[in-house]
Batch of 2 targets.
Target 1
Amino acid sequence: MSEPNELEILEKEILPQARRALTGSGEVDLSVLIPAYNEVGSLAELVHRLQDILQRLTSSWEILVVDDGSDDGTAELLAELASSIEQLHYVSFRRNYGKSAALSVGFEKARGSVIITMDADLQDDPDEIPRMLARLAEGWDLVSGWKQQRKDPFIKTSTSKIFNFVTSRMSGLHLHDFNCGFKAYRREAARSLRIYGELHRYLPVMAHVQGYRVTEIPVRHHPRRHGVTKFGRERFLNGVFDLLTILFLSRRRHSPLHFFGRVGFAFGTVGFLISLYFLVIWIGGAGLHMRPLMLLGIAFILVAMQFFSLGLLAELLVSSSHGNENYQIRIED
Ligand code: UDP
Ligand code: MG
């Protein structure tokens, strides 16, 4: 933000456009939600930089830090900061529950019409907020950051690339960077998300399958200067399972038998045809003796029955949780 030219564009074009995003049903215009686990080295600077930029956007904002059970003095620092900054609020967990838990509680407590999430470690640049809001104002419900030039170790960036490719293919939502912590949400979109486990990686997918409009913009990314990363590459396989969960829960939630039934039907048909073949040659007078194909036919029929009963069982679960459906309404008059 050193060139005067850039500053001028910010003042004249980006800020006015960004302010147009700040309407809605929240008690304040804008919340910035920050999950923080042992980030004592970065938080003070982050909060001060946020103050600068938020004040230029609106007079009605808040910063909400969720301290995820830190033991490095993060909570004490937050208490001190909150005593001098009226708009700063924080929640401190009794123990470390994980980033998903921190975001989930944060979304519940944040009061903004627009909610920005960002990491506490200064890797996300607060100066990008106006551009994200400007994009939101174009009619999107979720604007996700894309760390186009990522400042992380090689192993992390490369596994992340595979993860993003797979997620994009399987979900039909074409983003480059699903797991960026830096995002802007319209209030309804943020509050529609049911986050548990480690599902924070899939928030854009969840919003997308619920019918919210999701897009991304490139954001600057900085190397970590204080503290250490909390995520390693061992999460990769878990990530794949989580994606399956999301896609299954979102698409098949209301009619599991439609899914399990189809699989069962496919197995059943093949099994039936194989058995029919043996029946026909038996009627034709050929003596029967056990053959590998016969075993396969029987196995397929058993597998088919398994799938049908699984589907019926799942239907039972769905029907007993009736009334908790999560339909997202866009306009109500
Ligand atoms: N974080 C958290 N709880 C955890 C792990 C991480 O609240 O159990 C926060 C962390 O303080 C940071 C953000 O989540 O603000 C992203 O974590 P990190 O920077 O370690 O991830 P990376 O950028 O290396 O992927
Ligand atoms: Mg980080």
Note: The beta strands are 28-36, 61-67, 88-92, 112-117, 142-147, 183-186, 214-219.
Target 2
Amino acid sequence: MMDTMVLKFGGSSVADNEKLKLVADKIIKIKNKKYNIVVVVSAQGKTTDKLISEAKELSNEVKDREMDALLSIGEQITTAKLSILLNEMGYKAISLTGWQAGIYTDNTNQNATIKHINLSRINKELEEGKIVIIAGFQGINENMDVTTLGRGGSDTTAVALSAALNAKKCYIFSDVDGIYTTDPNKYNNVKKLPELSYEEMHEMSSEGAKVLHNRCIEIGEKFKIPIIAESTFNDNSGTVISDIIEENTIKSIVKSETSRISIIGNGIIRNVKAIKNLINIIEREKLEMLELLILENKIVITFKAVVDNRIVDRIQEELINVS
Ligand code: ASP
Ligand code: MG
């Protein structure tokens, strides 16, 4: 039996025909290493946002069931186009909707939870040597109605399929080449993290870093699926999220919209040097704190007023870049 790899491509990676060609090249490269390939795709570019606003133009009270019926089409367009392209390139591929792929969910339209996956169709197609391309973010409930998993839910589809298929790894491809200590679009001196534990990733998401769909981390951790965040558009090594626990290394700073900053890293509570440096910055910058929480894996500070982004740069320099 060949090992299975699950490859997920986000909306900006599949935005147009040119990008789909790059996606196809990436898939073929991995396929040629002799793996069974299951691909999960998002809707193209901003399709989901566009469909939501079009529906809202029609009605102020769109029923969740109908919104799901509409939004699920976005992902299906991508699956069909990618399959057409791969077949044209000489590779056997097939597109499947969530229900064709056997993804069963509960009845919560717009925020459904995957209950179980019936793999018979996927396995049959893999046995025939096909690349199986599955619509992310969607499933079917017991009434045979289409459901969606909540915004960003294709990540969860990919990791859930990896668990069900006992896949070796789950790759999450996007337009960034990994997970950074903090938002690379906003701050200087950011560092790409080669590895991260599930728990740290979970803390980052719950403190507000918009990286991966939160539920996909829970599934990854439960079924021990290594999740690898990489770029669709280059071959740089990305970030591996797995069980690895590295003590005392600070991984991330998340600044919320409000006056809160969180610093995340396994065992941060024992990192005396980092805590000292942090207190130094706060004193030097004359910042007034309302609350300071030092926990096993994170420090959360609530300030009296909203703090400048410059403070995040300072923390980055004096805590992360030295540890
Ligand atoms: N297309 C959906 C969204 O935009 C799901 C996803 O991309 O993961 O939220
Ligand atoms: Mg996403």
Note: Residues 10, 152, 155 surround magnesium ion (ligand 2) (CB under 6 Å).
